[in-house]
Input
Amino acid sequence: MTTQRIRDFLATRRPDGPCLVVDLDVVRDNFHAFRHSMPDSAIYYAVKANPAPEVLRLLASLGSNFDCASVAEIEMALEAGATAARISFGNTIKKERDIARAHALGINLFAVDSHEEVEKISRAAPGARVFCRVLTDGEGAEWPLSRKFGCVPQMAVDVLVYAHQLGLESYGVSFHVGSQMTKVDAWDSALADAKRVFVSLAKQGIHLQMVNMGGGFPTKYLRDIPSAEAYGKAIFASLRAHFGNQIPHTIIEPGRGMVGNAGVIKAEVVLISKKSDNDAARWVFLDIGKFGGLAETMDEAIRYPIRTERDSDEMEPCVIAGPTCDSADVLYEKNLYPLPVTLTIGDEVLIEGTGAYTTTYSAVAFNGFDPLKAYII
Ligand SMILES: *Cc1c(COP(=O)(O)O)cnc(C)c1O
Output
């Protein structure tokens, strides 16, 4: 969504080169929507989605907690004003010395999905709280996160028992239904799994207290998405169904849903050409591509809204590609993208919904192109 503030910024500042502009008012609105729709869940913003200091400071001031994947992200969250008690080290793949550094910084909440990781934490952060991530099928997500993270629920039981034996506090279960999850009921089967883990552990005298329901909340790209409220209602109904009147503490970790629609990338058309005289589709080359921050166009997974000043003209399907000398740097080709027939070299385009997962994905200097600049307003 290109807000009036972003329009005004671009019109007055006229930044050269591709850049991301993030409107903090939208981030604030998103935070309040999550708070209001899921009032009983603690919000842990997934820092990786957009770690700009201004974004972190705003969220810290609004009372957000932070889900961090590295010591550097933990330091950024602390720098932004969060206390260590408001930070979780949510990556299931950590070096033991990073666990020790996090522990020294006061972090006391760690994700695991294996016996091996539990051993590291028991040595480097003795007595810390751990939650075990369970696998989900990622079904319905446009950017699935399945397979790499989590273990099957039965193994989660063993992992949490082991953590308890090693003197850690077995605290809960986590999962992530997959990013850009457009089905509101996608949390249900994972919550059923979480409940089974709770029951198995209770039988062994270990009483878990928390379910970390991860991220997955979508941002609007081309298609409409359900409201935060619809997600909140569906998730609460599932919590009730599975946990009855003993609903544990819950955490949500929105990343994309917190910042995605707050950002717009301004880019420029560098070249429009054809590969042969009878080529059906024109190739439109922008000054940003997969290596400039639009990595989530991989396999054409995320399809961003692209606006031009000629959108009222006739449209024709085009290939869209980036400016680098790598043939993988094509954004949309299998599914051609409609752009105005009058689009011209030098035109500005606005790529909406780019507040999440862009700046941090942009290469440092591939082909000499600068990393994506960001203006947080
Ligand atoms: C990336 C990530 C998130 C954020 O996911 P979104 O789909 O962007 O909301 C949340 N939790 C964990 C553990 C993650 O890795």
Q: What stands out?
A: The chain is about 30% helix and 25% strand. Residues 46, 48-49, 67, 90, 176, 179, 214-217, 253-257 surround pyridoxal-5'-phosphate (CB under 6 Å). The chain has two domains: 24-259, 261-376. Residues 24-259 form a domain with the TIM Barrel fold (CATH 3.20.20.10).
